[in-house]
Amino acid sequence: MIAPAAAFLLIFLAYPLCLGFWLGMTDAKIGEPGRFIGFANFVSLAHDSVFRLVVFNTILYTAVASVLKFALGLYLALLLNRRLPLKALIRAIVLLPFVTPTVLSAIAFWWIYDPQFSIISWSLIKLGLIHQYIDFLGQPWNARWSLIAANVWRGIPFVAITLLAGLQTISPSLYEAATLDGAGPWQRFRFVTLPMLSPIIAVVMTFSVLLTFTDFQLVYAITRGGPINATHLMATLSYERAITGGRLGEGAAIADAMVPFLLAAILFSYFGLQRRRWQQGARD
Amino acid sequence: MASVEVSNVRKSFGALEVIHGVSISVADGEFVILVGPSGCGKSTLLRMVAGLESVTSGELRIDGRVVNNVAPKERDIAMVFQNYALYPQMTVAKNMSFSLELARRPKDEIADKVGKAADILGLKPLLERYPRQLSGGQRQRVAMGRAIVRDPAVFLFDEPLSNLDAKLRVQMRAEIKALQQRLASTTIYVTHDQIEAMTMADKIVVLHDGVVEQIGTPLELYDRPANLFVAGFIGSPAMNFIKARLDGGAAPTLVAASGVEIPLHAAPRVAPGSEVVVGVRPEHVRLGGEHATPARIMVIEPTGYETQVIASLAGQDVVCVFRERLSGRPGDPIPLAFEGPLHFFDPQTGEAIAAA
Amino acid sequence: MALSSDASEGMDYLERLPRRVVTLYLPLAIFLFVLLFPFYWMTTTTLKPDDELYDYARFNPFWVHHPTLDHIHKLFFETSYPFWLINTMLIAVASTVISLICSVCAAYGIERLRFSGARYVGLAIFLAYLVPPSILFIPLAAIIFKLVLFDSDWALILTYPTFLIPFCTWLLMGYFRTIPYELEECALIDGATRLQILWKITLPLAVPGLISAGIFAFTLSWNEFIYALTFISSTENKTVPVGAITELVEGDVYHWGSLMAAALFGSLPVVIMYSFFVEYYVSSLTGAVKE
User: Which of A191, B104, B217, C180 is the most exposed place for a label (fewest CB within 10 A)?
Assistant: First the structure.
């Protein structure tokens, strides 16, 4: 019964995974198979200033976007957990940015960030807050923040809706007991909400970090990695070197280099917030 | 300790009024139990006293002070919840000391109070355990310990024993009663179990559909129920109700629809010929003797120390509880007479009618 | 209890309305505005004629003054957009169906057949979900090329299940777990085969799970980009996301009207499907995370 699923996963996932590692250790190009060159690719990458910049970009992008998504997503979840009219409708609307194909909403952001016709710039000028149109995507740091904003926009619904589901499993009588014990809103959050929510937070943030670190679509669609590699992530650099540049081996090596970071991130976020003793079964 | 006054309180959820003008007064140090079937409003009333629900109209006073719009934590009350509501990530000791820590009490005062409460409830060996590792009864005690440590003006209990098994319930009833007497605390307790009410309360408030049916001591409610509902609710097995017509004459007699005559030793103050409902508790039915009426056994259940019989008397089922052992089988004839207090009720209003 | 209401409603009576507006309604309104604005911008841009689009001095950019269907017309009749739509739909449906079938079998096998090592297979499947496409796309490109599937829909229909199957299997395992085993034992005693049990008893009860998994798989597949970008090269065979990015820009000229139309209509199928099955989508989202 498992055979069909296993077949797909073995042929198109497990085998390519191993092949990917192998490729990273060859100098394969498009059209010619490569020779085994050991760790030469990795060594040259380590000396490649673009690669080092890209690693920095990816870590920055992941860290900032994940923190923002967590904070804003949690805040939105707390808002949605309160007594509201039309809650089901609001919840359905909130998920729209996540449901829409990333590239298509990226195109919309591309237009919103246009240097001459940005609606954001126009509004800020009308309000008198700035005097000239913002160059969202032309300056390195502007481009970075712009992309992080787009990524956060897309990711908040995922974090918010899953955390909301977790919030709804917390028994109201815990909050009532805390209120009677004299806890104010912040204390109820700290002593009831956070502890009960931490297992779900761990899982949600693991997924979120994973998806953000390996992001390709958003960057490719809006900046292709520019300006001057300021927004290049490891995934987009890998594509540029391997497919556009034709150097498969080098591209594969870049992709492989993502793996240790991913493992570290997963282990950190998962075990860091792991189930605590008090949640484990009754054991004496 | 403080008194609690509920004055003509009403509660509506949107357009639906669920509590219709309830007035209850709880004296300082009194153990009052709110009892009634599911949905009668007892928990809602308790939550209004706690401040967890708003009061739509009427006044709520704690220790003379009107508290309708006072936040729960300002009311100086503690509550024990049906599902205990213990903080899962804190040890028993932390659960109990939480409120004092929030109030920034000095550490030795906290340790002292927690220690005392733990002693009273036998929780000393469990102080470093987590709620997940405790049994139901132990969790309940921790919930009570948490309340005791606060030393509040009023204790509120919301069906605390519902989730425990029968044997544990009997034991905890005694413990709670003893605790209340020792601390002389004003307590309002909600339950649907009338046995709990009868065994623990100083005063019982019987609620039904958001209205107070009767307030009184356990024995008052047992001996002099004010209406059909209270009569049928208090006491187990429930009181028997026989609908019939009162026949005048020298000795008061009930005439059932089937024509069978049942002699009574007391009569209600109504005109002869009126329809009346007579209430007799199962333990007040006697076997045989003078003025007995023939009946037929339907079900006979010996339990060891008593025998429960459901008999058909004049076309109606009557539950009887006898101390003696009986040898009889379904279908056998059995003579029944009513001794002990009789209760009379108006068939239209359900109100009790005084004896003549 | 008939009369209980949830705690937050009960204690809200203490909060005055102005405070409620500031701490709840205002932040919520801001969130909703920010989350929805790009869609509004997408739509208005699609409907604005070019002269209005690029002239903020004369026309307030927030409203559409003279709506036009020109951009939509251009998109559908002067580009390969309709091909992309059909391609994407075909690939999404095909890979979803394939993945569901494989996942149902796999999930049933793991949950019910109770063979030794079942837990490990389940874990392996979950770990498979964590392997991101951006690591696999290069070796997969080599494999696709070797299998002579390059530039065909089949390249995608066969590779999408690699990320759809793990998720669907995980989700369906959870659903099968909630179906009492006694039902199937009864059927076993009555003489049914495993396949019959799966078809007649387990599947009908797992329909909500199937719908949830199917909807989520459909949206995931529509959202896929890097494989489609790498494996497909000719214009007609592209999917909507790839085509919109690579084909609609001529040199330095960005036809924003058509670009936004492409984005809008490319999102519509998914959003429409989603709007009919919101509860199912949410339950797969939260189901995946609840492990």
Answer: B104
Measured between CB atoms, does B270 come within 8 Å of chain A? no
Residues B298-311 have a mean pLDDT of 90
The residues, ordered by sequence, that sit 6+ positions from A136 with a Cβ below 8 Å of its Cβ are A113, A114, A115, A118, A120, A142, A143, A146
Find the residue in B nearest to A284 (Cα).
B133
Q: In this model, does residue C17 exceed pLDDT 80?
A: no
* Residue pairs between chains A and B whose CB atoms are closer than 8 Å: 72
For residue A85, which phi and psi values (nearest 5 degrees)?
-75, 155
Check A12 against C161: CB less than 8 A apart. yes
Please check whether residue B230 is in contact with residue B206, taking contact to mean a CB–CB distance below 8 angstroms.
yes
The alpha carbon of residue C164 is apart from the nearest alpha carbon of chain A, in Å, by 10
What ipTM goes with this model?
0.85
Query: Rounded CA gap, A85 and A75, in Å?
Result: 18
pLDDT top residue among A5 and A135: A135
Domains contained in chain A, CATH given: 49-279 (1.10.3720.10)
Tokens in use for A69?
């998504």
Q: Which domains does chain B have, with CATH numbers?
A: 4-233 (3.40.50.300), 240-353 (2.40.50.140)
- What count of Cα atoms within 13 Å lies in the side-chain half-sphere of residue B311? 26
Span A71-92, pLDDT tens digits = 999 999 999 998 888 888 898 9
Cis status of the peptide bond prior to A227, with omega within 30 of 0: yes
Indicate the pLDDT class of residue B47, thresholds 50, 70 and 90. very high
Q: Identify from C5, C20, C35 which residue to disrupt to test chain A contact, counting A C-beta atoms within 10 A and taking the largest count.
A: C35
Which has the higher per-residue pLDDT, C8 or B190?
B190
Domains of chain C in sequence order: 75-290 (1.10.3720.10)
Contact list, B79 vs chain A (CB under 8 Å)? 176-177, 180
Tell me, what's the pLDDT at C4? 31
Nearest CA-CA partner of B343 in B264, B286, B279:
B279
**A115 preceded by cis ω (within 30°)?**
no
**DSSP code per residue over B41-59:** SHHHHHHHHHTSS--SEEE
Asked if the model's pLDDT at residue A229 lies above 90, the reply is no
Radius of gyration of chain A (CA): 23
